[in-house]
């Protein structure tokens, strides 16, 4: 399969419009049409449903998108490794979920870069499942996630633990004495669409199925700003909001008829990866 066709497919799946895709890629619209046609001929499946206002992925298209993203990631990773090999003898690729990066990993990576300037470092932020897939595809060397990897040939060990706390701005907190599950459901909850493993399942279990949240975001590091603005309540790892809790910009809201579980993060890497082991020793 032509990689340009695959990249065109990925762009069209995001924009859902042939004209905008052609403009973004600086090609003629007919080129986009031909590339998608070639992919559909090769796969033998319709990847898009044409509608009056654009296109939508078919069921087969949704399935193919996962593979297309992996192919693009692998190609980018290969090109970066080849280009960096001339200057750096070694390169460490670190995949990490945002919550762990913000609360714990940033200073470790910074110190490692300072002490080992001859080693190139690439940091990839993502969700747990995506990072573990990238680890198995050899796109990253080590993955810090909330999901343990149980697979032969890989090492998975506990990295850190944290407390899951419900937070709000002091000015906006209506439950100084604590909050019940029923009150939480009826409050304005700022939903962060991120996986905390078992803790993530706990947060989702607090709300009814198909609950309509007034606010959602997929990056846990961005929730704090909205909490400080007094827009609602949200669960976050305590270490992530330590500064705001200490300064009084945020305060903890204590659950009355339910309790939050511990958050455990894991470090996974391929057995025998000496550079990763060296990094973890330094950390």
UniProtKB/TrEMBL annotation:
It holds the Pfam family LysR_substrate. Keywords: DNA-binding, Transcription, Transcription regulation. InterPro entries: LysR_HTH_N, LysR_subst-bd, WH-like_DNA-bd_sf, WH_DNA-bd_sf. Residues 1-58 form the HTH lysR-type domain. GO terms for molecular function: DNA-binding transcription factor activity; transcription cis-regulatory region binding. The keyword Transport does not apply. CDD domains: PBP2_LTTR_substrate (cd05466). Gene3D superfamilies: 3.40.190.290, Winged helix-like DNA-binding domain superfamily/Winged helix DNA-binding domain. Belongs to the LysR transcriptional regulatory family. This is LysR family transcriptional regulator.
């Amino acid at each position: 399969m032509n990689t340009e066709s695959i990249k065109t497919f990925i762009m069209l799946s995001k924009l859902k419009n042939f004209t905008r895709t052609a403009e973004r890629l600086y090609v003629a619209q007919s080129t986009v049409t031909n590339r998608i046609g070639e992919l559909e001929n090769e796969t033998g499946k319709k990847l898009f449903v044409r509608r009056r206002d654009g296109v939508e992925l078919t069921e087969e298209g949704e399935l193919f998108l996962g593979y297309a993203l992996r192919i693009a990631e692998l190609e980018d990773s290969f090109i970066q490794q080849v280009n960096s090999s001339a200057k750096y003898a070694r390169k460490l690729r670190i995949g990490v979920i945002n919550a762990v990066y913000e609360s714990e990993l940033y200073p470790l990576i910074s110190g490692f870069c300072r002490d080992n300037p001859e080693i190139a470092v690439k940091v990839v932020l993502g969700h747990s499942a995506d990072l573990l897939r990238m680890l198995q595809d050899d796109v990253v060397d080590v993955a810090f996630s909330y999901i343990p990897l149980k697979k032969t040939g890989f090492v998975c060990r506990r990295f850190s633990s944290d407390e899951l706390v419900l937070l709000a701005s002091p000015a906006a907190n209506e439950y100084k004495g604590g909050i019940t599950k029923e009150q939480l459901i009826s409050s304005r909850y700022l939903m962060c669409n991120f996986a905390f493993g078992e803790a993530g399942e706990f947060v989702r279990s607090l709300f009814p199925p198909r609950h309509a949240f007034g606010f959602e975001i997929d990056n846990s590091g961005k929730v704090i700003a909205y909490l400080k603005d007094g827009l609602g309540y949200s669960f976050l790892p305590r270490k992530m909001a330590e500064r705001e809790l200490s300064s009084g910009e945020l305060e903890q809201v204590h659950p009355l008829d339910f309790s939050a579980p511990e958050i455990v993060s894991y470090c996974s890497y391929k057995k025998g990866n000496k550079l990763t082991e060296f990094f973890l020793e330094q950390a």
